[in-house]
Specification:
Largest sheet: none
Low-confidence stretches: none
Structural class: mainly alpha
Number of strands: 0
Distance between the termini: 49 Å
Oligomer: single chain
Radius of gyration: 17 Å
């Protein structure tokens, strides 16, 4: 009985070399990192969160989560690049 592609021994290597899967993995990691940084209180993380939101790599759910964290801290969203990404 043949194994499904997901369990093929070389499937993970092929997936790792695929540029689209690398982009998706980077987007997921950046989404989680942005959401985590947005809930840390303090002004020193706001620049990093703004840069990641304006990069275009964070999806809608990541943007909403990060903005929710910033607004809960009383931050105003006035960066033009972030507003454009929304």
């Amino acid at each position: 009985m043949p194994q499904p592609k997901a369990f093929h021994p070389f499937a993970e290597e092929q997936r790792a070399q695929d540029p689209k899967s690398k982009l998706v993995k980077a987007q997921v990691e950046l989404r989680h990192l942005t959401g985590f940084l947005a809930i840390i209180p303090g002004r020193h993380v706001r620049g990093a969160v703004n840069r990641s939101l304006s990069s275009g790599l964070v999806d809608v759910y990541g943007i909403v989560g990060a903005l929710r964290g910033l607004v809960r801290q009383g931050e105003l969203i006035s960066d033009a690049a972030v507003v454009t990404a929304i």
